[in-house]
Amino acid sequence: MNGNIIVGQSGGPTAAINSSLAGVYRTAKDRGARKVFGMLHGIQGLLQERYIDLSDYIKNDLDTELLKRTPAAFLGSCRFKLPEIHEDREVYEKIFGILDKLDIEAFIYIGGNDSMDTIKKLSDYAIVTGHPTRFIGCPKTIDNDLALTDHTPGYGSAAKYIGTSIKEIIRDSFCLEYEKGVVTIVEIMGRNAGWLTGSASLSRGEDCCGPDLIYLPELPFDLKKFGEKVKNLLSSKSSVVIAVSEGLRLSDGRYVCELGQSLDFVDAFGHKQLSGTANYLASYVAGEIGCKTRSIELSTLQRSGSHLASRVDILEAYQVGGAAVKAADEGDSGKMVVLNRISDDPYQCGTKVKDVHKIANDEKLVPRKWMNEEGDYVAEEFINYVRPLIQGDVSPIMVDGIPRHLFRPV
Ligand code: F6P
User: Fold this and answer.
1) A single Gene Ontology molecular function, please (predicted)?
2) What are the residues whose beta carbons fall under 8 Å from the beta carbon of 281, sequence distance 6 or more?
3) Is the C-beta atom of 303 inside 6 A of ligand 1?
């Protein structure tokens, strides 16, 4: 490698995305890259020529370690959809002009399915125009919904945070006794895929009963049946805890969170901003049963909880960053690095690269057979799949009693 590299972060942040950035930076430097540029706010920022030289921020090994432990996107992120090449060539000419100016040999984009659409289009444009820059995708998303990879970096840490938080919520919910009982509903991210919501089951063990019900967005949600189940559970226990996906929909396609409000904000990919499912269901239960209810939205806490990060996840995130640079250096383009699970016990996982055209814009959902028959819990196969991904800890570097992060003034 003798040119420069540019790396960007895109889509929803995670606790592990900066570990991938650290992996890209270190590997690029080790393989001889002269400069490693970071796009500020992904492709959207690059179009405005906003970028930094990462060596101004990562000066030593301690900075690398801090970056690996820093949640959210160090470079800033974006949700930006590139037009089709035939729709607007000017955008592509502008991007490639900037890449030429910076002498970019490889372009690495760390993101989810929408972000892989960017890698797909840019690598296609490079082929059409005979441009030498290589484009490689580096997987990332707490949603774990990317095709062709066993799992995605960011998922393991979010799952660990969710499993732990649900356990703590259950512990708390049994303290106070109310006449008609208490129902706690916890809303978890993942608009169409229930990988994150299913990880609530990780709280179950010898010292915890786990949530009573888990509803994934893959199956249509039946409000009336739900109410009856809750009533039934309250006849035998004083506290009921339920994990629900933010993306629960009724059989007519309406989001449950839409029942209580109108969802006005829509992003560049046409996704409605989902929020309020737990709140709506808690009011519904209170209205039907008259018991105490509480709704908890884990919201951004579940994707930025780096103090509870999974060691497996942070190391794999670093590894995929390095593998992306290696792939570009070896001449690959239009590919994404995937995680390839070799065995569960002992857990072993390696990396490969796969064609990004088969990954972009696709969504991997939880298989029906990984849920129970009633559709209100996950099956053992699901738990066996996720358990290895949450193993081990990464101790935060504590300063004045609070985790220290690598800081970039914005
Ligand atoms: O990209 C993953 C994700 O965390 C989804 O689970 C969630 O629906 C979405 O991002 C929320 O994104 P935003 O922060 O843009 O509202």
Assistant:
1) metal ion binding
2) 185, 226, 242, 244, 256, 295
3) yes
Q: Report the alpha-carbon distance of residue 378 to residue 97 in Å, rounded.
A: 49
State the pTM of this model: 0.97
Block means of pLDDT (10 residues each) for the chain, length 410 residues?
A: 95 98 98 98 98 98 98 97 96 98 98 95 98 98 98 98 98 92 97 97 98 98 98 97 98 93 81 91 97 97 97 98 98 98 96 97 96 98 98 96 95
Whose CA is closest to atom 2 on ligand 1? Answer: 12
Residues annotated within the binding site for Mg(2+) are 113
- The Å distance, Cα 141 to ligand 1 centre, comes to 9
Cβ of 191 closer than 6 Å to ligand 1, yes or no, is yes
Answer for the pair 4, 33: CB distance below 8 angstroms, yes or no.
yes
Task: Kindly state the tokens that stand for 79.
Answer: 């949700």
List the chain domain ranges.
4-154+306-361+391-403, 157-303
What DSSP string describes 288-343? HH--EEEEEE-TTHHHH-GGG-BHHHHHHHHHHHHHHHHHHHTT--SEEEEEEEEE
Fold match between 4-154+306-361+391-403 and 157-303? yes
Regarding the domain delimited by 4-154+306-361+391-403, which CATH topology (the fold level of the hierarchy) does it fall under? Answer: Rossmann fold (3.40.50)
Helix axes 61-68, 17-30, angle to 10 degrees: 150
CATH assignment of 157-303?
A: 3.40.50.460
